[in-house]
């Protein structure tokens, strides 16, 4: 009789259970994988949508203004806008196109002069959508050059292709080493120089000094080496800065006259739109900042920006702008004008422009 061997029923049941568990485990792994795949895509879509839909906090055309910070520039005015904290990496471009923007070395510099109107010019230029300007003064070429161009670039605001990156540091104009250092960075950089009647500029400079250190000697004392014989102390900083021809000569040793645009400080007050139009031309930009952006503030004695959309007040420069100058002996002013006359004439010849200072 044939003998048949039958499998143990318990073994068959165990194999079936294991097969079912394996199938369930495989399905579970597939489901989990699909879940993470789907949720990952959704999260990516949401992130991209949140970036693309993010409202711009700075329209750059004057509709909105950037948050104000408390870093002061050389004129004692708080720097405003992107990069004003002088902390690398904190600036952001809130135009909804951060991923396209990069930090670049500046293509234009406002190099001076102190108390000439550089802050006003910068604030007016910042209305232009194609200008990305550092709000504070980095003082790279005169004080922080040892930090290197990588540090300098990190200070700049992010900019899109076609936008002009710029900064202002008035001390550049009078610092001996600066022209060569700027040239080493870029031979093609565009330089903007705001100039003002050197006598008026010196008095404004002194007025700022005494607002911080009120116990210094009188202007009349500091302006002369010997007041009896009328010898001017041309090395006293407020007077020395006004020797424009002497300082411009150093810049012309490195850059062509065509690369330096001169802005009239007086014209910036009497005709801001006209001066801004010429600066926009110099930078190769469309004339977008026009007379519709300005009104004259009789109290301060200089132009302010008209009330932007979304703001309850017009935008004027800080309290340090337009303050009353210290009273100066008229005879001292007359002597200073005589002192500056030949220097001004030489400057006019170098500039190819007569600014009409007395």
From TrEMBL:
Any single Gene Ontology cellular-component annotation: Golgi membrane
Keywords: Disulfide bond, Glycoprotein, Golgi apparatus, Membrane, Signal-anchor, Transferase, Transmembrane, Transmembrane helix
TM helices/strands, residue ranges: 21-39
Gene3D superfamilies assigned to the protein according to its UniProt record, in alphabetical order: P-loop containing nucleotide triphosphate hydrolases
Localization per Swiss-Prot or TrEMBL: Endomembrane system; Golgi apparatus membrane
EC class: transferase
Membrane topology designation: Single-pass type II membrane protein
GO molecular function: [heparan sulfate]-glucosamine 3-sulfotransferase activity
Segments for region (Disordered): 73-97
Protein name according to UniProt: Sulfotransferase
Organism per entry: Hucho hucho
Upper classification of the organism: Eukaryota, Metazoa, Chordata, Craniata, Vertebrata
